[in-house]
Amino acid sequence: MMTLLHNDFVLEMIRLVLYAVGLIAFAAFNAAYLSLLERKIPSWFQLRYGPKEVGWWGLLQPVADGIKLLTKQLLVQRGADVVLFKLAPAMVVIPAIMCLATIPFSETLVPRNINLGLLVIFSFSAIHVIGTMLGGWASYNKYASIAAARVVAQNIAYEIPLLLILVSLVMITHSFNLHTIVDQQAGGFWRWNVLRLSASPLMPVAFIIYFICMLAESNRAPFDMVEAESELIAGAFTEYSGMGFGLFFIAEYANIVVGCALGTILFLGGWHCPFGLLPGLHWFLIKMYFLCFTVIWVRWSFPRTQFYGLLNLSWKVLIPIALANLMITAIMLKLF
Amino acid sequence: MWNYFKLIATGSWSLAVGMWIVLRHAFKRPVTVQYPYESVRLPARYRGHIELKREAAGGQPKCVACLACQRACPSGCIALDGVKPEGAPRKVLTLYTLNFTTCSLCGLCVESCAFDALQFSKDYNLASVRKEDYQMDLLTPGEKHS
Is residue A55 in a domain? Predict the structure, then answer.
């Protein structure tokens, strides 16, 4: 047994399994309890109580919701493409969880420290668009089809400013490695990328653009064109029942977690303390959950935009500013 | 070009103001009334179904069975009867029923009462699936509603 534990391959396998289980549990836990917060936080905003009957402070509500979803029948309606219809929830949820594999939660807690970590996250997070589109298209339902067309237009429109911001960020950090990017921001909050005005005076604006694009990429209100209830019933998820529907929600929250974690890493200094004290996992989680709170806060502050407004915002405002940021960064890098 | 930046600035400002207003509300107390466990205080002039006023001493109805309310009722939903016992100063009620299914809460009966014997109750938990529950016997109010 002891010789087995000294075998590097066996140790690596154990590490792999533990991280895989841990990440899936982390994603599922976040999906469950962010969905509770999604109901609690708006209840504060709207002077209500929110769920409070199931468990203390409604803490068992996600369990009750999960059991309800599991007991529902999985219906596949006539005319649907059965294979794609059943594959789509998995195609949405798996990339979202895989993105977590490259995220450095703290100095030592990194599932996989890949040199191209940032690129890995963005290539995987592009897949969930295809998953949602396939789900909508395979549903054989007009609302779902419209939503499928919308999700593609929306995600293409918002991936461009997002990538432009990241290009200018990578020009500053000279690295795709998330661990290295966080290490460069050690010190106080004035060393975080969001306040790195010497590199580009538009950095705070870049962070806001990143945040807006992250909202749009994870299909959150006010950009939730995919499941615009008032227009499209539940959009691409109209025909899904039971846990098929639940998986889309796990994916939505996993995407939020990935987006907020990435925002923390790229702009807010990852696991570093704002005052240079006690760096560690807790600072990462505080910053990440603050961003998650902001996502929910935004959702319950603003009504859904029109589709034209959504595309106009991206093509006429975000992309020009992101391009300007890119140019300014390039000029600053060349001059200083 | 100037308008473009002005629009972005004013738009961002109004979004920030909106988020600030929403956040401020998070620290206010909930206004929800947890209905089955607690209920709001009804206003003084709330109009429930009518009920009989009773003497402070003895608890007998003040009603003298003059039939003014029965005549005043436009829907004919009040039925009452009384007898004059030997030696009593006035008639005593033997029957007072209200058919609440046709009552429109107009209050003419309360206005017509010259003896201050009728008032609106504050009873609003009146949901029922049986029509008979709305044939209310106001003389024995404990049994009017099961």
Answer: no
Backbone dihedral region for residue A81 (phi beyond 0: left; psi -120 to 50: alpha; all else: beta): beta
A46 in a structural domain: no
Cβ contacts from A onto B, under 8 A = 35
Distance, CA of B123 to CA of A320 (rounded, Å): 65
Q: How many CB atoms lie within 10 A of CB A48?
A: 14
Range of the domain at A254: 73-335
CA distance A295 to A38: 10
Confidence of residue B144 (pLDDT cuts 50, 70, 90): very low
Q: Which of A305, A123, A120, A132 is nearest to A212 (CA)?
A: A305
Q: Is residue A285 part of a domain?
A: yes
Q: Do B25 and A317 touch (CB under 8 A)?
A: no
Of A336, A302, A301, A319, whose CA–CA distance to A45 is shortest?
A: A301
Whether A207 is covered by a domain: the verdict is: yes
B52 membership: H or E segment, kind and range: strand B50-52
In which residue are the tokens 């829907």 written?
B75
In this prediction the pTM is 0.81
Q: Which domains are present in chain B?
A: 50-143 (3.30.70.3270)
HSE, side-chain direction, 13 A CA sphere, residue A182: 29
Q: Which residues pair with B98 in a beta bridge?
A: B78, B136
**Which of A198, A199, A228, A119 is CA-nearest to residue A166?**
A119
Q: Report ipTM (2 d.p.).
A: 0.77
Write out the H or E segment, with its range, that includes residue B120. strand B118-120
Q: Which residue has the tokens 């691409």?
A: A236
Q: State the smallest CA–CA distance between residue A296 and chain B in angstroms.
A: 11
Closest listed residue to residue B53, CA positions, set B142, B146, B139: B139
Say whether B30 and A48 touch across the interface (CB within 8 A). yes
Tell me the per-residue pLDDT of B78-93, one tens digit each, with 9 for 90 and over. Answer: 888 888 888 878 888 8
Cβ pair A278, A56 in contact under 8 A: no
Contact flag B31-A302 (C-beta cutoff 8 Å): no
Whether residue B135 contacts residue B122, with contact meaning beta carbons closer than 8 Å, is answered with no
CA pair distance A95, B10, nearest whole angstrom: 38
| Paired tokens of B43 | 């206003």
- Span B9-56, pLDDT tens digits: 998 999 999 999 999 988 888 888 888 888 888 888 888 888 888 888
